[in-house]
Amino acid sequence: MKALIIDAIHSAIGEELGKYMQVDTKMLPTQAELASIIGDYDVLLMRVDPAINKEIIDAGKNLKVIAVCAVGLNHVDLDYAKEKGIQVFNAPGWSDNAVAELTISKMLDISRGTMQADREVKEKKQWNKYKYYGSELRGKTLGILGFGRIGRRVCKLANAFEMKVYAYDPFLPAEVFTENNAIGTSMEEVLKVSDYVTIHLPLLPETRNLISTESIKNMKDTAVVLNMSRGGIVNEKDMYEALKAGTMGGYATDVMENELAGGGLTKGAGFDSPLFGCDNFIVSPHIGAQTKDAAYLIGQDIIAKVKGALNLQ
Q: What local confidence, expressed as pLDDT, does residue 228 receive?
């Protein structure tokens, strides 16, 4: 048997599976590249790129398992994989705290201007402590869009900062919000009352461009949006225009719509955005689940699932 790794995952996965099969690595191939090489492999180990479509699944004539070392599965054609008898696994739950902590980190960074201050001191050699008057999280209202495991963990951490939490999730009963010390309400109400709005939703047709000019109009001019989920949920052009016009207090994100432009993680890859010129914008390169702790736990989960699916002892 043979396994193909196409993204950065914990080394323990390759080491353990290597006891039972040949394990190869091809970092972030395009869909066409993956389709051209997948035919020899029984197991595909990945995260969220590239999208696994019908052509790739058809090309994977030996494929038995697609193991996604992440939570979301919207990038895999699950129905077609099932039709072809391919088992698809993800690793939900293990990165919840990592993403939640990054969310709080970005709230603190953008509310205190720490990243801008850091650049000013190191690059401009300026020490202007009177320039930075930030805001505390205590007493502010946090709106959470998507109250799954990550959203609830963010809520718990926000409670520790004495924030008031409003949350929107149409698939949950009222008692889930109450049990987590949050007020469950409509998305419109969340946007209206919140000082910070954090997004923990999958990218679906109905969530694409969820935060746009129209929804921004319903928010406070001082509100800060945080996107820890998927690029495309926030319309970046509309967000840029709102930041420049002063109708949005800030935008902090771990994802961007074209984050893999120019080849993703390949050598020399890069991309640009007008948002990079906004002082009240901070970004990280999709590192939400990138902690040693989460990677290890995800790795152990994926190892167990792949070995179980293939009856490896």
A: 95
Q: Residue 239, SS3?
A: helix
| 301-311 pLDDT per residue, tens | 999 999 999 99
200 among known catalytic residues:
no
Secondary structure class of 43 (helix, strand, coil) = strand
DSSP assignment of 195-216 = SEEEE-----TTTTT-BSHHHH
Confidence band of 263 (pLDDT split at 50, 70, 90):
low
User: For residues 1 and 310, is the Cβ–Cβ distance under 8 A?
Assistant: yes
Look at residues 283, 271, 268, 226 and name the one whose alpha carbon lies nearest to residue 249: 226
The alpha carbon of 4 is separated from its chain's Cα centroid by a whole number of angstroms, namely 23
Task: Report residue 7: phi and psi, to 5°.
Answer: -155, 170
Active-site residue, selected from the candidate residues 47, 75, 200, 286: 286
**H/E element holding 37?**
helix 31-37
Give me the catalytic one of 16, 236, 257, 259: 259
Question: Using the 8-state DSSP alphabet, how is residue 85 labeled?
Answer: T
Give catalytic status of residue 189 as yes or no: no
Q: What pTM, to 2 d.p., does this model score?
A: 0.86
Distance CA 310, CA 86 (A): 11
Model confidence over 6-56: pLDDT tens digits? 998 999 999 999 999 999 999 989 999 999 999 999 999 999 889 999 999
What interhelical angle do 114-124 and 96-112 show, nearest 10?
60
DSSP string, 240-287: HHHHHHTSSSEEEES--TTTTTTTTTSTT-----GGGG-TTEEE-SS-
Say which of 16, 47, 230, 257 is annotated catalytic: 230
DSSP state of 39: G
Is residue 302 within 8 A of residue 23, CB to CB? The reply is: no
**Token pair in block for residue 129:** 């402590």
Is 259 labeled as catalytic in the residue annotation? Answer: yes
